[in-house]
Structure formats: C-alpha cells, structure tokens
Amino acid sequence: MISVRNVNKSFGKQQVLFDVSADFEPGRINLIIGQSGQGKSVLAKSMVGLHEVDSGQILFDQRDFTTMEKSERSEIRQEIGMLFQGGALFDSMTVEENIKFPLSMFTKMTKKEMQDRVDFCLDRVNLQGRNALYPSECSGGMQKRVGIARAIAMNPKYLFCDEPNSGLDPKTAIVIDSLIRDITYEYGITTIVITHDMNSVMEIGDKVIFIHQGKKWWEGDRHSIITTDNPEIEAFVFASEFMKKIRVSLKAHNS
Amino acid sequence: MKYIRNIGAYFIMLFWVIRKPKKMSIFWNMFMNEVQFIGINSIPIVALMSTFMGAVISLQTASNMDSPLLPAYTVGYITQSSIILEFSPTIISLILAGKVGSNIASEIGTMRITEQIDALEIMGVNSINHLMLPKILASVIYFPILIVFSMFLGMFGGFLALVISDLQTTETYILGLRSWFDPYNIFYALTKTVAFGFIIVSVASFYGYYVKGGSLEVGKASTKAVVISSVVILIANFIITKLMLL
After folding, report:
1. Under an 8 A CB cutoff, do A86 and B121 touch?
2. What gap in Å lies between CA A45 and CA A120, rounded to an integer?
3. Based on the domain organization, do A1 and A67 belong to the same domain?
4. Is A91 at the interface with chain B, CB within 8 A?
5. Closest residue of chain B to A86, computed from CA coordinates
6. Touching check for B25 and chain A: CB below 8 Å?
7. What ipTM describes this predicted complex?
8. Is some CB atom of chain A closer than 8 A to the CB atom of B212?
9. Phi, psi (rounded to 5 degrees) for A160
C-alpha cells in the first residue's frame, strides 16, 4: 500500500498541492483524475521522489520515503515501475536493450536469464519478435507497450502510469488499459494511473481520486463517479455534450 | 545572482558525477561509445583544421621573415612553438567545444525533456553519474590523444605548404622544428587539454541536464553551453599559462 499523508508542495510562491492525503491499495488500479494543471502529475511525481514535498509523508508499505537517504530511496525505487506519458524509452537503445537495462543494472542475472525475462515481458505486452527495433521505429502504442514491458521487468510492487492513453486512438487505448488491468491483478501490484480519459476511468478505475485546485476533492470508484452530485466532478466528467447525454439517459434509467 | 546560483549548481553536479559507477560493465560500454563519439568521430575535423592551420601559420611566418639577420629555420621553430603552445591545445579545444559540447548539451537536454532522465532516476540510477562520468573520462583521456595528433598534422601542414611553395627545404624546416624544442611545452599543452576537455564536457552536460521546457530551450541550452565553455576555456587558458609558464 502507498499512503500519502498531508502533502504540501509549492514551486516558488505558487502552492500546487494543499494537504493531500490518500491511500492507494495493492492489487487495485488507483486512478488520479482531474483537469490539466490541477496538480495530479505533481502529486504522482512527488510520490516517486522526482519532486521533493514541502511537508507531509509518503509511505511505501509504512516506509517513509520523504525522510529516507538517497541510497534507501534507490532500494525502494527498484520496486517501482513507471510508464511515462511519452514512453521515455532510451532513444539510443533497442526495445530489447531498454527492457534489459534495469535487469543488467540491478540484478545478477545471467545473460540467458535476462534474455528469457525480456522475451517474457515482450510476450506479456504482445510484442514478440520486436526486440531489435529502436523506439523511433515504433508507433505510439508500441512505445507505450514497451514502456510497460520495461516497467514490469523488475517485478515491481508499485506501478505508476502517467497518462498512459494520451495520444493514442481509442482502440489502442483500450489495449493499454487492459494490459495495465491484467498486470495489476495478476501480480497484485499497487497501480496508480494519472489520467483525464473518462473511458479509462470507466474501464479500469477500481478507486478514483479527483484532484481539484491542488486538493483531494473527491474519492470513490468508477460507479459512484457517474452518480455523484459533486458539482466539480460533474463539470469534469460531463463536460462534453456526448457525456451530458449519457448522464441524462443514466438518470432516466435509474429513475 | 543567477550566475552564482549556476556556479553552485555546477559544483553540486560535479559532486554527484565523481562516484563509483553502479555497474562497471554498463559503464565500460558507455565509455567506449563516448570514445567513439567524442574521440574517433572528431578525427576528421581535427585533421582538416590542423593541417590547414599549420600550413597557414608557416606561410604567414615565412612571409614576415624578410630580415636577412633571421636564420631561415626560424619559420619551422615559430610554427612548432605556435602549434604546440597555443594552436593545437586551445584553438582545437574551442572547435571541439562547438562540435562535442553542443552535441552533448542537445543529447542530455533531449533526454531531460523526453523524461528519459526521470526514467533513470525512478529506476534508482544516479543519472548524473551514469550519463556524465563516461563522457568526462572519455574526453579527459582522448582529448590529449587528439591534440598530439593535431600537433603532428599541424607541423606536417606547415611542411607541405613551405615545400610546395618552394619557400624552404625539408632539412631547413625540420631543423627549425627541432630547434629549442622543450618537452615541458608538451606537458604544458597536454595539461591544458585535459582541463579543457573536462570543461567542455562538464559545462555542456550541466546545461543539458538542467534544461527546462521544450525543444526550443534545448537549442538555447546547446548554444549557451558552447558560449560558456568557450569563455571558461579562455579564462582557464590564461590561468594555466600564468601558473605553468611564468
């Protein structure tokens, strides 16, 4: 479990996070949603230590990440997998080398064991035989899948996904969502997904945290987000005409 | 104020660079790649510049040596001194600051804006050490080799220019090259080169690593890296010369 306790974060004079507290449960997909610029990426980056918080605690299974030495953090980070918005694959390396990198850096696996692990991870994301491609030769969806393969290479306990569906067509987005869901349930990973894609919310949102104006505004699941009367959530979820029509038909159906 | 903050950030960065690499096999692979990129790939430009500059130095010297009181071999001596003391270590380093420095700043800056550096950090890798140490060591080891190569080619260029122009005989030129030759000058030149190599790569890495924004900022960081490293090279050149030659 990852717990965030009373986290505050500012950049210069501008405060971005205000006293945010939340629990992210293992074996479930925890979504952080909200409009752009409301602080959800800052929260996620603070949780993995890319930003230092001003105050508060971030606990990885009761281990306080905020007060740790760099070497201790390094150990926890080896338990974290992260899928970045743009993939963040190493340009100079092939798909295989990208996945192999954390294994060769942090494990004492033999070459054969590493190769088996790479093949397993590629197989898991349906990219068998694409080992020799460079990131520039991969489509956006493939890059995301390679990113997932790299993130799960070290058998992570915690998986962070920063807008995994941005820039993808709806069909590929569903493939990525399914992958994240299957991996989370299969390995009991604590998965945190930052998104503003409502389709993802409805597909995989076991737990949903809505961040608004740097505060945790609402918490629930994918079913309750449709029925809540919270005005900010309504404004976010039902922003488009299409979603408004769904809202009307849902209300009609419920009544 | 901003400059002072940058200087502080630069030295903090160096503190993280000088660490034992996490995995020697990965470090070795990266080091060899950097030797290829910084060293081997720079040979053509160094060869071209050195040969032509050596030729021009010898021709200009010969054209100004019209006094009968000066022996003919003075041309070779002045060419040798100019190339060893200043042209090869300083001018070639300034050229490499443009070629290698801008490339390193762009490479690391692109890694920053595409979150590749964040990916390294999240894996638990000391990204500063991982990215910069191989580059710095490759430059500190390989720059002196490039500069020795440049010295030879510079003097060879001078020889070609003088002999082709029929201004001097081979014997006179070689006599000039060997006159008052002081091996300490080579030591001085290579010491400068090591310092310049370190400056070029560390300054370029600094500007690349701390870039914020998008591709436009990467371009600006690359330009800034070349300008600042060139200025620092000139200042370091003055200080090292004062310390070692006077």
Report:
1. no
2. 29
3. yes
4. yes
5. B114
6. yes
7. 0.86
8. no
9. -110, 135
Does B123 sit within 8 Å of A102, measured CB to CB? yes
Work out the percent of chain B whose per-residue pLDDT is above 70.
100
DSSP helix/strand/coil, A64:
strand
Residues 98 through 127 of chain A touching chain B, CB cutoff 8 Å: 101-102, 104-106
| A149 falls within a domain | yes
CATH number at residue A179: 3.40.50.300
Residues of chain B short of pLDDT 50, as ranges, are none
Query: Does residue A202 sit at the B interface (CB-CB below 8 Å)?
Result: no
Helices (H), chain A: 40-47, 70-77, 95-106, 111-124, 140-152, 170-187, 198-204, 224-227, 231-237, 241-254
Find, in chain B, the residue whose alpha carbon is nearest to that of A108: B23
A38 and A128 fall within a common domain: no
Do A74 and A3 lie in one domain? The reply is yes
**Per-residue confidence at A59, pLDDT binned at 50, 70, 90?**
very high
- Rounded mean pLDDT, A230-238: 82
Domain extents in chain B: 23-245
Model-level pTM? Answer: 0.87
Of B119, B124, B126, the CB nearest to A88: B119
pLDDT number for residue A247? 74
Cβ within 8 Å, pair A77-B119: no
Instruction: Give me the pLDDT at residue B208, please.
Output: 96
Calculate mean pLDDT across residues A113-136.
Answer: 91
| Residues A33 and A12 placed together within one structural domain of the fold | yes
Residues B115-166: tens digit of each pLDDT: 999 999 999 899 999 999 999 999 999 999 999 999 999 999 999 999 888 8
CB contact (8 A) between residue B118 and residue A80: no
Query: Domain for residue A70, yes or no?
Result: yes
Instruction: Tell me, rounded to whole angstroms, the distance of Cα B42 from its chain centroid.
Output: 10
pLDDT of residue A199: 83
- Please give the Cα distance from A245 to A241 (Å, whole number): 6
Is there a contact between B109 and B207 (Cβ–Cβ < 8 Å)?
yes
Is A233 inside a domain boundary?
Answer: no
The reply to whether residue A82 touches residue B122, judged by beta carbons under 8 angstroms, is yes
- Tell whether B19 is within 8 A of chain A (Cβ): no
A230 found inside a domain = no
Among residues A115, A131, A155, the one where a domain terminates is A155
What is the distance between the alpha carbons of residues A76 and A106, in angstroms, rounded to a whole number? Answer: 12
Angle at the Cα of B143 from the Cα atoms of B137 and B146, rounded to 5 degrees: 145
CA distance B18 to chain A (A): 16
**CA of B115 vs chain A CAs: smallest distance (Å):** 5
* Residues spanned by the domain of A37: 1-79+158-222
* Domains held by chain A: number: 2
Give A36-55 pLDDT, tens digit per residue: 888 888 999 999 988 999 99
Domain endpoint, select from A155, A187, A205: A155
Residues A74 and A4 in one domain: yes
Judge: B125–A78 Cβ closer than 8 Å, yes or no. Answer: no
Q: Do residue A21 and residue A127 come from a single domain?
A: no
Chain-chain contact of A77 with B110 (C-beta, under 8 angstroms) = no
